[in-house]
Recover the amino acids of this structure.
């Protein structure tokens, strides 16, 4: 069975699991500092939602030729920089709303928990951007406060949460400009 990543083509056993083929594609792309951005298996385009265990466990030969294209990680990060900044600005707006609510005695823990999940995505993005040299900013200064914020959350200490968000997190998130 033929497998192709960009201009490179190689053979793999027809009995190889689709999971093995895709892992090999991903590894080769990673070695080049790239990510797979398009994947076609047989005559079908695949997205990450198609990569479920029942499909990945199938023999790749039954699907046919596997073709993938990749892009340099730096290109991907650069193309997403504006969206990432907008996402960070949205996080800042939400954090300011949470601060006001906590200062008024409102216990918006579900909203805070959802916000934490989005903050984690943003931190991951900023670290990725830093690793490929597309930004000088770092989330280190936010990350160092997370254990304290989580502790305050576990204790339902809304005054502390408001303080951490207002004085340690909000100033480190991007502003509209």
């Amino acid at each position: 069975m033929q497998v192709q990543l960009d201009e490179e083509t190689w053979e793999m056993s027809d009995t190889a699991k689709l999971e093995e083929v895709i892992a090999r594609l991903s590894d080769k792309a990673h070695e080049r500092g790239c990510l797979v951005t398009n994947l076609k298996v047989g005559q079908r385009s695949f997205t990450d939602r198609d990569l479920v265990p029942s499909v990945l466990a199938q023999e790749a030969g039954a699907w046919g030729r596997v073709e993938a294209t990749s892009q340099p990680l730096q290109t991907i990060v650069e193309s997403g920089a504006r969206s990432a900044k907008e996402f960070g600005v949205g996080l800042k707006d939400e954090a300011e709303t949470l601060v006001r609510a906590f200062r008024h005695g409102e216990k918006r823990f579900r909203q805070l928990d959802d916000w934490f999940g989005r903050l984690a995505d943003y931190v991951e993005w900023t670290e990725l951007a830093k690793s490929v040299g597309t930004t000088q900013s770092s989330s280190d200064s936010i990350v160092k406060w997370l254990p304290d914020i989580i502790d305050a959350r576990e204790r339902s200490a809304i005054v502390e949460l408001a303080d951490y968000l207002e004085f340690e997190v909000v100033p480190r998130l991007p502003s509209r400009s």
User: Anything to note?
Assistant: The beta strands are 2-5, 8-11, 34-41, 44-46, 66-72.
